[in-house]
Write a structure and sequence with these properties.
- The chain is an alpha+beta fold and 479 residues long.
- It is built from 15 helices and 13 strands.
- It has a five-stranded mixed sheet with strand order 9-8-7-10-11. Strands 3-4-5-6 form a four-stranded antiparallel sheet, with no helix packed on it. Strands 1-2 form a two-stranded antiparallel sheet.
- InterPro entries: Retrotrans_Pao.
- Pfam families: Peptidase_A17 (PF05380).
Length: 479
């Protein structure tokens, strides 16, 4: 109900105080308001606008936290003059929590708060998630089973190391003082056999030189199903593509340029290729990347200068204050001094992810039949000649191993019947849609010949008279 009322207030003050209305709609999370301003005077104006707006709904701000000492002093004075004393300023060390992270408003840094090994969840870091996956992959332990000493020492080491997170601090403000112009968004991706992901930095120009700000990262453990390293590198590039898109959509400061970096030359080659020429696993992911970013946004970075390597392999807490926090050193050099290795085309025959093209060739030849029905004026003569031809074929074929099978030149009834069946089958084969065309006659196939059913099946007539061969009218062979 309170959230509904606050949104209602934001709608009512849209014309009178549009800035406060935007803050109430966009920067509110449950009963907290989190907002950044460019100057102390701007912050003080926002505070007054918000208090005035919320007073219309009888909402009172319980507590203000601010990184500016000037604003804290004004809030203290305002609190002493307030008759109800509901607005209080921050005292002590300036420690509070915002969105699950510790925030020291005096030093304006974010930090982790690790209270107890028994109550905290430690599968949030990539190293702990990798070890958890290893336990799952082994399929040797149940939830209540104690771990062997070797694995216990690994997990205890992770727990002890996580206690050190309390000493890691991140600047809350991503825009350095004196920054000139808009930043460049740089996203680095990398993968290993155990994990993959991406990390993003904003590169600012300041009077003292280029400065990097860590913005976000996304790490995932590699799937249990075995994948090649190039495929995992592609999955990491896809994560970097999605992460960069999310940052551009959610960040109030829009970067003037986005650069996505990978140390995998084959992945960069795929991104520059036609997705339809690649196998489904690779093609689908390349297609999504290409629908979001121009391939020109991607560039190669050496493995040794890729901060994504820290993410894919995992680093200790003590290493987080180096390259991971500040970005690679080459970003602080002029653009023409950045690593820029040309991506060469890979021959199709050497790329295992290229679809194999198959071609079907059909050659149609028209041959005159040995026995042409048009050369005969009556049916019996056609059948006799056909029977002699079939006898000859059978005699020279491997199936006829007995030379004395045919003791007489006189044709046997079975041979004449086979000749008739031969022409009936040829005639019926000229009707490919016989099932649909003659379904009223309940046709069926018996010994390669189409026979008809019908009500005669209930009579006492012989089988051959009940189920007659179907005769094709106006046929080349039987007309």
């Amino acid at each position: 109900m309170a959230s509904f009322v606050i949104l209602k207030i934001a709608k009512e003050i849209q014309d009178k105080s549009p800035e406060a209305a935007v803050i109430l709609r966009r920067d509110r999370y449950m009963d907290d308001l989190i907002h950044s301003c460019s100057s102390p005077q701007d912050a003080w104006n926002r505070i007054q606008q918000l208090e005035t707006a919320l007073n219309t709904g009888s909402f009172k701000i319980k507590e203000w936290f601010c990184s500016s000492k000037e604003i804290r002093d004004k809030l203290s004075s305002s609190n002493r003059e307030s008759p109800d004393g509901v607005t209080v300023s921050l005292d002590g060390e300036g420690e509070t929590k915002t969105l699950g992270l510790g925030w020291n408003s005096h030093t304006d840094v974010l930090k982790f708060s690790v209270k107890s090994l028994e109550t905290e969840r430690y599968t949030k870091t990539i190293r702990a998630r990798i070890e958890m996956q290893n336990l799952w992959r082994s399929k040797q332990y149940d939830w209540d089973d104690p771990l062997p000493d070797e694995l216990s020492s690994v997990w205890n080491g992770l727990f002890r190391e996580l206690q050190e997170l309390q000493n890691v601090e991140f600047p809350r403000c991503i825009k350095p003082e004196g920054a000139v112009g808009l930043p460049v968004l740089n996203v680095f991706s990398d993968a290993s056999s155990v994990a993959y992901g991406a990390v993003a930095y904003l590169l600012w120009n300041t009077p003292s030189g280029p400065t990097c700000s860590l913005i976000s990262s996304k790490a995932r453990v590699a799937p249990l199903r075995q994948n090649t390293i190039p495929r995992l590198e592609l999955m990491a590039a896809l994560v970097s593509s999605r992460l960069a898109k999310t940052i551009e959509e959610e960040l109030k400061i829009k970067p003037r340029e986005t650069i996505l970096c990978s140390n995998s030359k084959i992945v960069l080659h795929w991104i520059r290729s036609e997705s339809l020429t690649l196998k489904p696993f690779v093609g689908v992911r390349v297609s999504e990347i290409q629908s979001t970013w121009d391939p020109a946004n991607f560039r190669h970075v050496p493995s040794g200068e890729n901060p994504g390597d820290d993410l894919s392999r995992g680093i200790s807490v003590s290493q987080m204050t180096g390259r991971w926090m500040n970005g690679p050193e080459f970003l602080k050099r002029p653009r023409n001094e950045w690593p820029n290795e040309e991506i060469k085309e890979i021959p199709l025959s050497e790329d295992p992810e290229v679809r194999k093209k198959s071609f079907s060739l059909y050659a149609f030849t028209h041959t005159e039949p040995i026995v042409n029905p048009a050369d005969f004026s009556n049916w019996p003569k056609l059948i006799r000649i056909t029977a002699y031809c079939l006898r000859f074929v059978n005699r020279i074929s491997k199936r006829d191993t007995c030379a004395n099978t045919y003791e007489s030149i006189v044709l046997q009834p079975s041979e004449l019947e086979s000749a008739e069946r031969h022409w009936i089958i040829l005639a019926q084969n000229q009707v490919p849609d016989w099932k649909e065309r003659y379904r009223d006659l309940t046709p069926f196939i018996e010994d390669r010949i189409i026979c008809v059913g019908g009500r005669l099946g209930r009579s006492q007539l012989p089988y051959d008279q009940v189920h007659l061969y179907y005769s094709v009218q106006n046929n080349t062979y039987l007309s």
